[in-house]
């Protein structure tokens, strides 16, 4: 038996009920007891068009292959198609502008290397500051200890 959707005219509650396909008439709302009428609902079946599914599947496979080629040749991942319908079109444009893409990629790599080197230099400076600060603290502590030893030896009369 099919499942139908009903709407209560009194309280506005929606609910489902199993009814025979030939059975007409309204139901009673389970919440308030008011009159409920059948409302249109989505169809519960799917049409499988294997021809269309195969074409979509083949297109996805082809796109994946061209994405792999783009990654191998240019090192590009996560491609925005920019109004191109297939990755094959993107690939053809990339091949046509290969020199420009390689130049941009090299610039990005160089910029990334510069930023990394600057960050490492900053870390080195910070580490040297911490080391210098610890060295000063160590010297001050030793000087203070030596002063305390001399103070004790002077007060006891020893030299």
Description:
Among the domains are: 3-39; 50-96, no CATH class. It is 59% helix and 11% strand. The protein is built from three helices and four strands, in the order ββββααα. It has helices spanning 50-74, 87-96, 98-156; strands at residues 3-8, 14-18, 27-28, 35-39. Strands 2-1-4-3 form a four-stranded antiparallel β-sheet, with no helix packed on it. The longest helix is centred in the last third of the chain and has 59 residues, at 98-156. The model has no long low-confidence stretch (mean pLDDT 79).
Q: Kindly state the number of beta strands.
A: 4
Rg result: 39 Å
Which structural class fits the helix and strand makeup? Answer: alpha+beta
The SSE order reads EEEEHHH
Q: What do the pLDDT scores average to?
A: 79
Helix percent band: 55-70%
End-to-end distance, in Å? 111 Å
What profile does the largest beta sheet have?
A: 4 strands, antiparallel
The best one-word shape is flat
Report strand %. 5-15%
Strand order of the largest sheet: 2-1-4-3
Low-confidence stretches: none
Number of helices: 3
Fold topology:
Blueprint: E1 3-8, E2 14-18, E3 27-28, E4 35-39, H1 50-74, H2 87-96, H3 98-156
Antiparallel strand pairs: 1-2, 1-4, 3-4
Helix pairs in contact: 1-2
């Amino acid at each position: 038996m099919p499942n139908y959707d009903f709407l209560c005219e009194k309280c506005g509650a929606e609910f489902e009920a199993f009814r025979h396909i030939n059975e007409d008439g309204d139901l009673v709302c389970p919440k308030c007891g008011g009159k409920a009428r059948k409302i249109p609902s989505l169809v519960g079946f799917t049409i499988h068009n294997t021809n269309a599914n195969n074409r979509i599947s083949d297109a996805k496979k082809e796109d994946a292959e061209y994405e792999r080629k783009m990654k191998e040749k240019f090192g590009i991942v996560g491609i925005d198609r920019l109004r191109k319908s297939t990755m094959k079109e993107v690939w053809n444009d990339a091949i046509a502008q290969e020199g420009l893409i390689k130049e941009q990629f090299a610039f990005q790599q160089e910029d990334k290397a510069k930023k990394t080197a600057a960050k490492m230099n900053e870390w080195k400076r910070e580490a040297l500051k911490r080391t210098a600060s610890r060295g000063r603290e160590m010297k001050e502590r030793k000087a203070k200890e030596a002063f305390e030893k001399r103070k004790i030896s002077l007060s006891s009369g020893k030299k």
